[in-house]
Design goal:
There is one protein chain. It is globular and about 45 Å long. It is of the alpha+beta class and 96 residues long. The protein has one domain.
């Protein structure tokens, strides 16, 4: 399971584990991988020593994230993976 999550976080499909994981496990791994990739983006864009600040609002068709570290970031491919995993659009809200 951990390997499948890591592969998803890296944007790869965990085909070698497909037969070993149930459909529910594969869906869970895709979601966990998307969250891990998102957390990595936020952390990598936060200057060293600065506290991490993130807010999240879940709506019926979208998830809105706001974090100073993401002010100029456009999620692109990660947003597509997020949409497939959660069936909701990822929206990045600019904060100062």
């Amino acid at each position: 399971m951990l390997s499948a999550i890591t592969l998803h976080a890296d944007g790869e499909r965990p085909e070698p584990y497909r037969a070993e994981l149930s459909r529910a496990d594969r869906e869970w791994a895709a979601r966990a991988g998307a969250i891990l990739a998102l957390a990595d983006e936020i952390e990598s864009r936060t200057p060293p020593g600065e506290s991490l600040s993130v807010s999240c609002r879940v709506r019926s068709r979208q998830v809105v994230l706001a974090a100073p570290a993401l002010a100029a970031w456009r999620p692109g491919r990660l947003a597509n993976r997020f949409r497939r995993a959660f069936r909701r659009r990822l929206v990045i809200e600019e904060t100062g």
